[in-house]
Design brief:
The protein is an alpha/beta fold. The protein has two domains: about 1-105, no CATH class; about 115-365, Rossmann fold. About 35% of the residues lie in helices and about 15% in strands. The protein has twelve helices and 13 strands. A seven-stranded parallel sheet has the order 9-8-7-10-11-12-13, with helices on both faces. A three-stranded mixed sheet has the order 1-6-2, with no helix packed on it. A three-stranded antiparallel sheet has the order 3-4-5, with no helix packed on it. Strand 8, helix 6 (about 155-165) and strand 9 (about 170-175) form a beta-alpha-beta unit. Helix 5 packs across helix 12 (about 335-345) and helix 9 (about 220-245) runs parallel beside helix 10.
Length: about 375
């Protein structure tokens, strides 16, 4: 059966679901020997209309266009059916191909589910026991993912699971220090044993001490780079090799920061580490595109969380809000939409090497 869930018509025209067709069986179905000519006029061409045809049994007459003359409209598809595939179908039907056709009304929820559905996908969220990555993990779980939170504190993971009202069949915790290669190497075998696959990997662990630049000790400098950069490098090596060896597609989302693209005060080494992370993301996106592995950064603006509360005194809060056109901080749940876009193999299929900014306009504000 060949289903056409949705057609698009020129502005001002009615959708197919309002079309009246007479003397035809219900539901509206055509099978051989009925042909396109039985219910529509011949395919014609026009410089302004492109390829088009007229439905005979409609009142008033209704025209169906391919929009070949308007490239913006040709990008609109019918639940995965491109306009070229649609016209190929019409031509085959007109030629007497043995096809059965069922015309359905437009279904927005079905379309969105097909675009962003992550049913049966498996995601690892390193740093998922925290506030922001915890919200992102919740969004993935709500979209159908089975989720593994990686961190050092099981009680934080359990608090998330309790709030979600989920079970071990859908969400689990793996205890690991993301800066230790041997511990990270154990994550993938455990996840594939639990759920049989691994499709999405989020690197979200980070630390952000607010030390003045002249007072930063070597130990703090190294700890920040180890956590914010080396840990991501270790994880990307592990999951990248896993996917490449198996010929599997996948999505890596690295948690970036406004500090990666703006020289923010008070967070000198943190900014350095996030800038390097953004560079790593771009390089891996280029290197692994041929393998079907997409690598992107998600760049939050200012979202109050555990790691930055020590920096957010009253003067800094005033400065941030004064520089943010939306005049507020972000809420953790506002990162979910961007997460689903980058994680989705369909909605985000052509997105790699990007730094998706969610900041209320902070990064575009100047004098």
């Amino acid at each position: 059966m060949f289903s056409l869930p949705e057609f698009f018509f020129p502005p001002g025209r009615r959708l197919l679901k309002s079309l009246r067709l007479e003397n035809l069986p219900k539901p509206i179905t055509w099978t051989k020997p009925r042909r396109l000519a039985d219910f529509a006029g011949p395919l014609e061409t026009s410089p302004s209309r492109g390829l088009f045809c007229k439905f005979k049994r409609s009142d008033p007459p209704l025209w169906l266009y391919s929009f070949r003359a308007n490239m913006e409209r040709t990008r609109r598809t019918a639940s995965g059916l491109t306009y070229l595939e649609f016209w190929d179908f019409l031509e085959r039907l007109q030629g007497g191909a043995n096809e059965e056709v069922e015309l359905k009304e437009h279904n927005a929820s079905k379309f969105l589910k097909g675009l962003f559905d992550l049913e049966d996908k498996v995601a690892v969220v390193v740093g998922g026991t925290g506030v922001l990555c915890g919200a992102m993990a919740w969004g993935l779980w709500r979209a159908g993912c089975r989720v593994v939170l990686v961190g050092r504190h099981q009680d934080k993971a359990e608090a998330h699971f309790k709030e979600w009202e989920t079970s071990p069949d859908e969400a689990r915790f793996f205890k690991a220090d993301a800066t230790e290669r041997d511990q990270v190497a154990k994550i993938i075998p455990a996840v594939t044993k639990w759920f049989g696959r691994l499709d999405i990997w989020i690197n979200g662990v980070a630390i952000n001490p607010p030390s003045p630049y002249l007072e930063i000790p070597d130990e703090e400098f190294e700890a920040i780079l180890d956590t914010n950069l080396k840990a991501v490098h270790i994880a990307c090596q592990a999951i990248g090799k896993h996917w490449i060896d198996r010929g599997q597609r996948g999505s890596i989302i690295n948690m970036s920061s406004m500090a990666a693209i703006r020289p923010l005060s008070r967070v000198f080494v943190y900014s350095l580490s996030k800038s390097a992370l953004w560079n790593l993301t771009q390089n891996l996106a280029r290197e692994w595109a041929d393998y079907g592995i997409r690598v992107n950064s998600l760049c939050p603006g200012f979202f109050p969380a555990e790691q930055n509360r020590r920096v957010l005194d009253k003067s800094r809060v005033r400065a941030i809000l004064g520089h943010t056109p939306m005049k507020r901080f972000g809420e953790p749940e506002e990162l979910i939409g961007a997460t689903l876009l980058l994680a989705s193999e369909k909605a985000g299929s052509f997105i790699t090497g990007s730094n998706l900014i969610v900041d209320g306009g902070f990064s575009v504000t100047s004098i």
